[in-house]
Amino acid sequence: MKGLCCRWSFSLGFMVGACSFYFFLYNVWFERSYPMLSEAQEKAITEKKRPTNRKEEGAALLNLLHPQHADEDNRVADELYRKVRILCWVMTGPYNLQSKARHVKATWSRHCNMVVFMSSVKDPDFPTVGLGTKEGRDQLYWKTIRAFHYVYEHHADEADWFLKADDDTYVVVDNLRWFLSNYTPELPIYFGKRFKPYAKQGYMSGGAGYVLSKEALKRFVEGFRIKVCTHTTPIEDLALGQCLEKMGVLAGDSRDTLHRETFHPFVPEHHLTGKFSKSLWYWNYCYYPIVEGPQCCSDLAVSFHQVKPDLMYTLEYYTYHLRAYGYRPRYQPSLRHGLGISTLPPSAVT
Amino acid sequence: MTEEDHHHHHHVKAPSKEELRSLSDTEMQKLSKQIEVYCVIMVQPKLLTHWAAALDTWSKHCDKSGVYTSENSKAFDAIDLNEKDNWTRLRKALKHAFDNAGDLRWFFVAQPTTFAIIENLKYLLLTKDPSEPFYLGKLMKSGELEYVAYDGGIVLSYEALKRLVHVFEDKDKCPEHVGALWRLNEDKQLAMCLKYTGVFAENGEDIHGKGVFNSQSIYTLIKDSMNNNPTNVLEGCCSDMAVTFNGMSPNQMQVMMFGVYRLRPFGHDFHDVLAFYPPEGSDND
């Protein structure tokens, strides 16, 4: 009886001690930190239904309103939107719609006047055009030929310039408009990241995106009609470049006023911080001298390539959202040809 | 503002358009001078590449910088406080910054793994009076203690730092050497010391109430938003006027430099009330 009593006291004492120690540790050691809610989070912003600025016209998405912020003065961008109409077509495929094309649809393609997603198979929901080809690298030029023919047949009058991009290309369409405002769509000309081999005037890298004037598009389609152009090779960018050269379309210089590249075949990090190994093919391909470091890339960059979905959103954030208040960048180019916009009054205090 | 008000007021927001419009030219001039920032950068040789990145990127936009190191490094000049303990070193750095502040009235404390946009910090602080005690950043709560997260960057007004330096003298309220068992992280220690002087931590926010101090990288925040708000990724993510991000690699910091100061869409203008110009001898901004 006495033994049981002792054991019971011991157990009780042990329990009390253990609990006290745990309580002590809980308050001193185990305390977790968590962030306080910001005012925006406290208000628990209910998800507002996004106003539909897009209209579907067959498989094409028309962007009716140029995306903008409430506290921005977008007069110049809006004027360019009206005067330099760009149709973007995005090379994709049925297996990439949810993993890649969806993010293009949610980000930069909203800034095109019109966007068409090109796939081998028609998808009425996304929506995509069905080009009637198979999928695979060997189909790339077939898809390109048919995509440009489709765009010419259905939308030739609705745009001035026709951009091709991949579903892993990020494009700053507003900067493309600035650059193209120096040219007219009646010129037989096209722009992109210029490569030099295999074609006298060079050709434009497919992944970095390239843009054809209306006249260039007309000549591309005409080339196939008169059989000057045929499916020569699946290497889409080279084949297109060779066809356009035969049809008298000029390969343009897309660099900015400081001779910095605007179309880029790799991601920003690679161009800004990477060193290209001297044995790399890139050195032999680039039409213009390669610049490594911060001057690789124009402030008014037009495209980057090999962009994964999370980087798409990050680039959209960097381009259209994040900024330094009041900062006046070093590079201050103007519109070289006036678009008939009246001189804006000096900045008023907002 | 009474201490009572401060205790319940958790959010410090950027000035609204109305607030800015109501300022006269002379007031604006005075405020522009007043918002100069002294950056207190706490480096260590083991973070050498981040140290180099901080020197080559965002810290060029501080009005004055004090780089305080835990030990000497041949690579870069820094103020060697000869102090291995993190909390003691932070105290020494803050005291040094206070003594050398000159006319500067705002102090921004960061580690080199943080990237800061000083212009956006100035915009946040524009209409705030540094002779009032301000202690702000990314607000965290641990038990009863509210503190500002170190890795999101800590902002102190002149008055807050003055009170802090004064309470450093008090060995009971704000001891320099803390036993291992009771040791808290430096940011919590700081909050406790400031609390004794009547200064409380606040969350820095933009005009929409979105936090502008981030203790994570932009990549992490975007990925989280892609999971949580797949149809509204950017609206559900970060402020346009963010001040800090943390945990990016040196290369990613160079990309952010390009993204903040250079990459932009042509034809989108802002009529900001302040103008900041690029620093001399720099080519990545």
UniProtKB/TrEMBL annotation, chain A:
Name of this protein: N-acetylgalactosaminide beta-1,3-galactosyltransferase
Cofactor(s) annotated in UniProt: Mn(2+)
PROSITE patterns: PROKAR_LIPOPROTEIN
Stretches assigned to the Fringe-like glycosyltransferase domain: 100-259
Compartments it resides in: Membrane
Highest taxon in the source lineage: Eukaryota
Coiled coil: none
Organism of origin: Solea senegalensis (Senegalese sole)
Entry function: Glycosyltransferase that generates the core 1 O-glycan Gal-beta1-3GalNAc-alpha1-Ser/Thr (T antigen), which is a precursor for many extended O-glycans in glycoproteins.
Membrane-crossing segments per the record: 12-30
GO cellular component terms, A-Z: membrane
Automatic annotation (TrEMBL), chain B:
A GO term, aspect molecular function: glycoprotein-N-acetylgalactosamine 3-beta-galactosyltransferase activity
Superkingdom classification of source: Eukaryota
Membrane topology: Single-pass type II membrane protein
Primary location class: membrane
Cell compartments where the protein resides: Membrane
Record region (Disordered): 1-23
GO CC aspect terms: membrane
One GO BP annotation of this record: protein O-linked glycosylation
Keyword terms, alphabetized: Membrane, Signal-anchor, Transmembrane, Transmembrane helix
InterPro entries: C1GALT1/C1GALT1_chp1
Family label: Belongs to the glycosyltransferase 31 family. Beta3-Gal-T subfamily.
Protein name as annotated: C1GALT1-specific chaperone 1
Source organism of this protein record: Solea senegalensis
Organism lineage: Eukaryota, Metazoa, Chordata, Craniata, Vertebrata
